[in-house]
Amino acid sequence: MDFYEMLGRYYDVIFPTNEKQLMFLKALLPERGSVLDVGCATGTYAIPLARLGYDVCAFDLDSPMVEMLVSKTENDENPPKALVYDMRRLPELNVGPFDLIYCIGNTLVHLGSLAEVNELVKACREKLKESGSVVIQTVNYDRVLAHKDLSLPLIDRQEGRMRFHRHYELKDAEVVFHGQLEIEGQGKTEASTTLLPVEAGDLVRALEEAGFREVNVYGGFDGSPHTLESPATVIVAGS
């Protein structure tokens, strides 16, 4: 089974909107602004930002997830503009410019190489307003690679009726992400996907080479310093 086919139906339960993350993104926006969500899934952040009055364009390569986003907002006055689209083709997308572009939820590491990362970052720079910002968030692969830390916390939802078990496997220059979805009364489903373990330094270099003047690296959406022990890598870059 495809990894996101396994997750899609239950995505909103497994990965609900985190208010701290939403406020982190909102703080980077003017009172009325435009947003591009790169890898929107089912609209976890695109939908609440649109409901707050922002002009949101959101895309994902997974068609069923985008369909879920559209279904959830069919009665909204200001729904996100939702597209099925490949982030590798962002330079060709005739949208923008935006006040904020974000690629969060460990989305960027689905690219196949650092060259593709560089191209995506350049495309983001080109589609930003002069005062705009880019936010990128991934797992802290510095820690994964340095410590060979291949475990991820269990996600337990609905008082144990749904569990998402996760772990990594290092394979050459890639990381294989193994997931097992356990649902009470329905058994277990397993799937895997291959990720590119992009380190914080690689992202900073890509952003600086693309022309971003101010690049800040955090260990989470709480604004904590980024260290080798941080659970995440969150980068905010100003144009």
TrEMBL record:
Keywords: Methyltransferase, Transferase
UniProt keyword annotation of Methyltransferase present: yes
GO molecular function list: methyltransferase activity
Superkingdom, natural source: Bacteria
SUPFAM superfamilies per UniProt: S-adenosyl-L-methionine-dependent methyltransferases
UniProt keyword Methyltransferase, yes or no: yes
GO biological process, one term: methylation
Record's protein name: Methyltransferase domain-containing protein
Organism: Acidaminobacter hydrogenoformans DSM 2784
Lineage: Bacteria, Bacillati, Bacillota, Clostridia, Peptostreptococcales
